[in-house]
Design brief:
189 residues; alpha+beta; seven-stranded antiparallel sheet; six-stranded antiparallel sheet; 2 helices
Length: 189
Amino acid sequence: MKKLACLAALSVAFATAQAGPIQLDLTSGIFANNNGSVVVDTYTEDGFRLRTVRAGDHFDPAFIGDIGIHNGFQNADDVSWVIDFFGASFNLVNINIAGYVDGASSITVTGSNGATQILSGLGTLALAGMGNVISVVFNIGQDGGTQGFGFSEINVDTTPVQQLPVPGSLALLGLGLSALGISRRRTAK
């Protein structure tokens, strides 16, 4: 009986450790400079990483919300940045847009699953189709000049997508339960 109780407790602990929505407040993480330039180009919080795509594009803490991003004067092209969970899948639920500057009015969001959505407006905006992604690319499309965008929070969910068990997994589960039953019978004798 003790083995069965331990097995049940372990499975519950494993399930609760995997799941959970996370609110990235964009203020309690760590800013870094990984492209070797003089600007901040990477931000990490709760296992998630925001990083710019090109050297020169950068994040400004507390600029237009909690984090502002713009292309700087040396890059007159689109501004792009990526959010990822270091290779693990996640669901991007919504983003709180604090503001736009210098002519920017929308951002395009593209998930690693191919889903694309254009966001415009301010406040918390829901994202559609950004489930079970490994990364999401944000882009401000522009034709020259310096444009920027700021946001105050990002909500993600790390709950794994439910999948049907494959026959091999079911066979291993059956084998484990059989072994547990046999060991119970032996200790009862």
